[in-house]
């Protein structure tokens, strides 16, 4: 079972009120219903959240950590939605976004429904590319990449940190077991990323395991899907654990990281559609405050990350325009007419 945002809401109400009974009264639910919801939530994330004591219901250490993250997410999401709404009021036109196929195919699409809901007048052109260089006259309004460009006329914003570690599927681990060291990788099927046939793979370069490489691909998305399918062990960004709870971190203390930048020409960001897209990227898609996998410090992948991501997406999608099919400007005009009449 995967908790939804409402499970987090019930949990936070119990934590803040210090009582199942008071939480039930506040939420207009029965006390057994609250107890069942908390038990289901604990089972879904795999930790005990509360202790029953003579002083009432108290948070465990794990419960306090979950509350801290959930409360921060609640505040940040409200702020992000406010920013997105404000930017969306006058945002119309097209924004051309260029990004590598890993983020472009495996991460950004999860946020597109919310983006389109809050920006009904923006046409988003999302193109994936393996070209990491930015030209003097870029094809895209915004380009997401791992290398920081040095062109003086480009604005560069650091969006996040990508942390990479080894992953395998549960099916692969059940069949072949877990390696315990880089040397032990020689007994496993290695899947690797190489942007060109003549290049040494990323994992081969990083860990020196090229002699056991079972597959090369120039597609980050293909690499991730092949790992998920159970073909072998690959080096993936840690947000993979948030996307798919079936992925298991292999030797998670072995890792490296790479910054993620968004680059654009200064005059491009003056256009409302580009500015709204840039705000959404920074405040929602790469929200470092609420997504530990994008922070500067490395965090070991946790089973609860998937639930955290689902709750984040649910909260982000909860707030919709009154009529998402109607352009916002027309909707405001109708409101003024109704008030006048």
Which descriptors would you attach to this protein?
single chain, 341 residues, alpha/beta, Arc Repressor Mutant, subunit A, D-Maltodextrin-Binding Protein, domain 2, 3 domains, two-stranded antiparallel sheet, 13 helices, 10 strands
Describe this structure in words.
This protein has about 350 residues and is an alpha/beta fold. The protein has three domains: about 5-70, Winged helix-like DNA-binding domain superfamily/Winged helix DNA-binding domain (Arc Repressor Mutant, subunit A, Orthogonal Bundle), CATH 1.10.10.10; about 75-160 and about 260-320, D-Maltodextrin-Binding Protein, domain 2; about 165-260, Periplasmic binding protein-like II (D-Maltodextrin-Binding Protein, domain 2), CATH 3.40.190.10. About 40% of the residues lie in helices and about 20% in strands. It contains 13 helices and ten strands. The strands form two sheets. Strands 4-3-5-10-6-9-7-8 form an eight-stranded mixed beta sheet, with helices on both faces. It is flat, with a radius of gyration of 23 Å.
Mean pLDDT: 82
* Largest sheet features: 8 strands, mixed
Q: Alpha-carbon distance between the termini?
A: 51 Å
| CATH C-level class of the largest domain | Alpha Beta
CATH fold label of the largest domain: D-Maltodextrin-Binding Protein, domain 2
Which helices and strands, and how do they pair?
Elements: H1 5-17, H2 20-27, H3 31-45, E1 50-53, E2 56-59, H4 61-88, E3 93-99, H5 101-106, H6 112-118, E4 122-128, E5 142-145, E6 154-169, H7 170-176, E7 190-193, H8 202-207, E8 213-217, H9 220-228, E9 233-237, H10 240-243, E10 247-265, H11 272-285, H12 305-318, H13 328-340
Parallel strand pairs: 3-4, 3-5, 7-8, 7-9
Antiparallel strand pairs: 1-2, 5-10, 6-9, 6-10
Helix pairs in contact: 1-2, 1-3, 1-4, 2-3, 4-11, 4-12
């Amino acid at each position: 079972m995967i908790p939804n945002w409402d499970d987090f809401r019930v949990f936070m109400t119990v934590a803040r009120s210090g009582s199942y009974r008071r939480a039930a009264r506040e939420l207009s639910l029965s006390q057994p219903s609250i107890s069942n919801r908390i038990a289901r939530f604990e089972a879904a994330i795999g930790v005990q959240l509360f202790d029953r004591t003579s002083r009432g219901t108290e948070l465990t250490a794990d419960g306090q950590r979950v509350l801290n993250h959930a409360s921060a997410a609640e505040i940040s999401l409200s702020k992000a939605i406010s920013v997105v709404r404000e930017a969306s009021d006058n945002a119309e036109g097209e924004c051309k976004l260029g990004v590598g196929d890993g983020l472009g195919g495996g991460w950004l699409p999860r946020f597109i429904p919310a983006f389109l809901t809050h920006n009904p007048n923006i046409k988003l052109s999302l193109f994936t590319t393996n070209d990491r260089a930015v030209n003097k006259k870029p094809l895209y309004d915004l380009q997401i990449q791992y290398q920081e460009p040095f062109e003086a006329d480009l604005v560069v914003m650091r969006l996040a940190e990508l942390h990479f570690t080894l992953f395998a599927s549960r099916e692969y681990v059940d069949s072949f077991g877990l390696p315990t060291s880089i040397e032990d990788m020689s007994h496993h099927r290695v899947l690797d990323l190489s942007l060109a046939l003549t290049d040494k793979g990323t994992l081969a370069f990083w860990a020196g395991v090229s002699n056991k490489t079972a597959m090369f691909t120039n597609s980050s998305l293909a690499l991730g899907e092949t790992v998920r399918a159970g073909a072998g062990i690959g080096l993936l960004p840690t947000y993979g654990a948030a996307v798919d709870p079936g992925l298991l971190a292999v030797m998670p203390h072995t890792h490296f990281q790479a910054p993620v930048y968004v680059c654009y020409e200064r005059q491009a960001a003056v256009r409302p559609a580009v500015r709204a897209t840039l705000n959404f990227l920074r405040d929602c898609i790469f929200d470092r405050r609420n997504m530990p996998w994008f922070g500067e410090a490395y965090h070991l992948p946790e089973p609860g990350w998937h639930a955290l991501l689902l709750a984040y997406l649910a909260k982000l999608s909860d707030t919709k325009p009154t009529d998402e099919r109607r352009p916002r400007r027309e909707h405001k005009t109708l409101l003024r007419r109704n008030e006048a009449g």
